[in-house]
Amino acid sequence: MTRGVRLISVKNSFANCSVCELLQSPSCILETNCEDDLSKVDIIFIAENPGKEEIEKGTPLIGPAGQIFRKPFKQYGLDKMNYLITNTVLCQTVSADGKKTENPTDSVIERCKINCMSIIKMCNPKLVVLMGATAMKAFGIRKTKDGITKKKGKMYEWDGFKCFLTLHPSFFQHNQTDVGKQYHDEFLNEMLNISRHMNGEDMIELSSDKNVEMIGKGIFRYKIPEHFYTDQYRLIDIQYLQKTNEILYIFRDKDNKKVFHKENDDYVAYEAENRDVAKKIVPYEELKQVKVKFKNKLLLKEDLTYEGDMKLTVKHALDYYFYNKGDCKRTSMNIMYADIEIDTGNDRVFPSPVAAKYPINLISTRYNGKNITYILDNKTEPITPIEDIEFKIFTNEKIMLQQFISDFKASQPDYIAG
Question: pTM value?
Answer without folding.
Answer: 0.52
